[in-house]
Amino acid sequence: DGYTGAGCQNKACLRDCNGPDHGICNPQDGKCACNPGFSGESCSRLKCPNDCNGHGECDQNSGRCSCQSGYSGPECVQDQPCASVVANWWDSFNSKGWSVCPSSSLLTGLYRNAEGCEGLYCLEMARCSLPCSGSVEKNLGKCLNVDWAGSMAGPGWSRCPAGFFLQGFYLSLIHISEPTRLLSISYAVF
């Protein structure tokens, strides 16, 4: 038991390293030398690409990464924007309606024109970027309208649902007598 060969001179490896596709048995010590992509005592575990770059957990049954927030793709690379464009929102925030980034791009910044300015009219431009790293798991191309009227009326965060990202705002109220305030934003596109 635990030895192979005509004279039982070779130490056997656990599960014979799950075959030559997974690994090769060293008969001297009975340990498996796993092929690339496999690990474990019997080479039965799948390795994840680049060990998830330290930003995710590897499912050794499937060889897939489960990435931490802010990381995505098969190797859990950090989400980074690229191919940025500047959307001119100077006029769109002065009237009722949508202010949005171009299709499939995500809001990565807002430009305000003056210090101490509190109205929406102070927002002039939005930086919109396409995701450069990561995967399409970001629900790009899917729209979800979320009512932020309540959360924008008071202090605190108005948050995107999990897996969705801000693409624009819908301005629902314009009061001629006072500057447009943040509580006027009632819907956000994700």
Description:
The chain has one helix and 17 strands. Helix content is 2%, strand content 36%. The strands form seven sheets. A four-stranded antiparallel β-sheet has the order 12-16-17-15. The protein is rod-shaped. Strand 5 and strand 6 form a beta hairpin. The chain has 190 residues and is mainly β.
The helix content is under 10%
Contiguous runs where pLDDT drops below 50 for at least 5 residues: 176-183
Record field, number of beta strands: 17
What percentage of amino acids are in beta strands? 35-45%
Structural class computed from helices and strand pairing: mainly beta
Major sheet characteristics = 4 strands, antiparallel
Cα(first) to Cα(last) distance is 62 Å
Radius of gyration: 27 Å
Secondary-structure element order, N to C: EEEEEEEEEEEEEEEHEE
Please, how many helices? Answer: 1
Q: Reading side by side through the largest sheet, how are the strands ordered?
A: 12-16-17-15
Mean of the pLDDT scores? 76
Instruction: Choose one word for the global shape.
Output: rod-shaped
What labels describe this entry?
1 helix, three-stranded antiparallel beta sheet, 190 residues
Short structural summary:
The chain is mainly beta. The chain has one helix at residues 149-152; strands spanning 3-4, 10-11, 23-26, 31-34, 38-39, 45-46, 56-59, 64-67, 71-72, 77-78, 81-88, 97-100, 106-112, 123-131, 145-147, 168-171, 185-189.
